Amino acid sequence: MEISIVRLQDRDAEELYRFEMENRRFFEEMVPSRGDGYYQFETFKIRHQDLLVEQQDERSEFYLIRDNSGNIVGRINLVDITNNVAEVGFRVGKEYVGKGIGTTALNLLLKTAIHVEKVIGKTTTNNIASQKTLEKNGFKQVYISDELFEMNGQQLQFIHYIWER
Description:
Aminopeptidase; alpha+beta; 4 helices; 7-stranded mixed beta sheet
């Protein structure tokens, strides 16, 4: 499947909200929940506007991952951009997992973000797909946090990665 990454815009709010709602349960199996408030449309719109301000201020870059028909299949972000260092975050919708979309989107993002020299990634110990996506794009595992947390009845830790140009 061919994909592209497209910078987040104001007009994306409703479509992105539907994508998040459709995939909420799936996402919350692998990453901590964003909370019930996130899934109330009025709150979602406010948070969407906050992201656009952050993007305009060049503190973060938010992208939608779209298929060749223009449908949202995921999202990918660079956040907390400071001194050519950023943190990456991404999520791919349930029906699109296992098709290389995350790996391709991260590769596109790294090529697009020529102003960033170092990218930090983090995922949970149970999220094998994200671990593989990071590693296929040249991220190196730097450590596993000592701190355990419970999510969905599992004891998990965060795995930390780094990528350098």
